[in-house]
Amino acid sequence: MAERADGDNIIAGRHPVKEALAANRPINRLLVAKGAGSAALQEILNLARERGIPVQYVERAHLNGLAKNIPHQGIVALAGAREYVSVDDILAAAYPADPFVILLNEINDPHNLGAILRTADAAGAHGVIITRHRSAALTAAVAKASCGALEYVRVARVANLARTITYLQERGLWVVGASGDAEDVYWDVRLDGPIALVIGGEDRGLGRLVREKCDQLVRLPMAGRVGSLNASVAAALLAYEVVRQRRRVHGRVPDR
User: Residue limits of the RNA 2-O ribose methyltransferase substrate binding domain (predicted)?
Assistant: First the structure.
């Protein structure tokens, strides 16, 4: 197995990719050569779709560059640095404490994701939820940026963040999204109960559906000329407000 410069582990060739899928290896994405087609390849694509793994069609020359001297037979898998967990795994890990979850709405920068995972570990969050599409995945680059936190933070990957918010709300979590035009400043809002924080992507913030699903929106006060903070900084400020309020209510930070 080779490794890309940006930290994705490369699994090349139909048989190795099929075996990785069958063994439930954490696969971030499949890359398939344009025009490639066979019964064996279709079987692999069917397995990928069953697991909700994104498939991208690229030029064969791109696969040649990724796989180097490994015969790729028109398909390459980009494998994750760590296994994902389910949303229920995260909620179960919180018991009997109130769940504290961080949801990321299309965070694309692996360094931002790594920094948020580091904050999640330090602040005692029970897990982080990311999306399968248009988001950074758990690569070696993310692991490096997290300074080891990836080994300790539970990360779930979901197909639809809006539906996941509804699922969390049905299980008693109050969902608070960060938005620059929100009416309430984050420190004026109660964040001490079962809580899910939603942080928007670097370019466009919260998506419309995600924004509408949140129970409440909060903003970070901005006194300077810059209109917003880096996503990982915003996540850290909100996460530690949760820590502060929980300490005020419980006299200590609840165990993770």
Answer: 10-85
pLDDT digits (tens, 9 = 90+) for 115-132: 999 999 999 999 999 998
pLDDT band at 241 (very low <50, low <70, confident <90, very high): very high
Indicate whether 172 belongs to any domain. Answer: yes
Full domain range(s) for residue 195: 87-250
Q: What's the whole-number mean pLDDT along residues 146-151? A: 85
The residue among 14, 46, 79 that closes a domain is: 79
d(CA 67, CA 13): 9
* Alpha helix ranges (H) inside the chain: 14-22, 39-50, 60-67, 87-94, 110-123, 140-145, 161-170, 208-213, 231-250
At 6, the pLDDT band (50, 70, 90 cuts) reads very low
Residue 21 lies in a domain: yes
Task: Name the domain boundary from 37, 52, 79.
Answer: 79
The three-class DSSP label of residue 109 is coil
- For 235-247, letters b (16+ CB in 10 Å) and e give bbebbebbbebbe
**Structure tokens that stand for 133 in this block:** 């599409």
CA atoms of 72 and 232, how far apart (whole Å): 36
Is there a single domain that holds both residue 121 and residue 243?
Answer: yes
Q: What is the pTM of this model?
A: 0.77
Q: Please give the share of the chain, as a percent, with pLDDT higher than 70.
A: 91
Q: Residue 255 domain-assigned?
A: no
